[in-house]
Each structure stands twice: as C-alpha cells, then as structure tokens.
C-alpha cells in the first residue's frame, strides 16, 4: 500500500536533500554561491520583470540539473564501486546536462545584457 501524501513530510525530505547537497557537493555550493550573486544582480538591473525572470530561471535550472546529476552519480556508486564504461558514461552524461544548463544560462544572460545595455 502506497503511503498517504503528506506535504510537511515531503518538504522535510526535500530540505534534507538540500542539506545533503550543501554538505557533500562542492560544485553545488559553488553554483549556489555564484547563482545567488547573479540573482541579486538580476533583481537590481534596470529592466522589466520579464527580463528579470528570464535571467533567474536558468540559474535555477543549473541547481536542478546539478541535483539530478548528483542523484545519478550516487545511484551508480550504490550499484558498483568498480570501474565500468557504462557507469563512467552515465556519470559523464549527467555532467553534460549540468554543463549544457550552464551554457544556456550564459547565453541567456549575454543576450539579455546586450539588449539592456545597447
């Protein structure tokens, strides 16, 4: 039987995940630090709310993909500690997702800043 949905328990699990990411993932801490700075910059830019949202959303995409990538890596480590080409490729593909989200974020920031400044 599936357990009953409980908003407060689910929120506790999510916050536990945030704590776990902050405690054990250096890349997440770096991305969170830099992302926070850019979110503050976005909020203070002299532009309309739509541009601010478009600047902030891809930053959260980076956080999300980093969490998914870390979950994938932990699942692989749970299954095997031995080297296996498929395990390596799976981890590399997860890292690729994070890299692509960062590239997307940079492209959006450049495009919007060019529009604002020029």
UniProtKB/TrEMBL annotation:
One of its GO terms (cellular component) is plasma membrane. Its cofactor is Mg(2+). It is found in: Cell inner membrane. Gene3D superfamilies: 1.10.287.3610. Substrate binds at residues 66, 95. It is an enzyme of class 2 (transferase). GO terms for molecular function: ATP binding; ATP-dependent diacylglycerol kinase activity; metal ion binding. GO terms for biological process: phosphatidic acid biosynthetic process. Keywords: ATP-binding, Cell inner membrane, Cell membrane, Kinase, Lipid biosynthesis, Lipid metabolism, Magnesium, Membrane, Metal-binding, Nucleotide-binding, Phospholipid biosynthesis, Phospholipid metabolism, Transferase, Transmembrane, Transmembrane helix. It comes from the Bacteria. ATP binds at residues 13, 25, 73, 91-92. Mn(2+), Zn(2+), Cd(2+) and Co(2+) support activity to lesser extents. Its EC number is 2.7.1.107. The keyword S-adenosyl-L-methionine does not apply. Its main location: membrane. A divalent metal cation binds at residues 25, 73. It catalyses: a 1,2-diacyl-sn-glycerol + ATP = a 1,2-diacyl-sn-glycero-3-phosphate + ADP + H(+). It is a multi-pass membrane protein. Belongs to the bacterial diacylglycerol kinase family. Catalyzes the ATP-dependent phosphorylation of sn-l,2-diacylglycerol (DAG) to phosphatidic acid. Involved in the recycling of diacylglycerol produced as a by-product during membrane-derived oligosaccharide (MDO) biosynthesis. This is Diacylglycerol kinase.
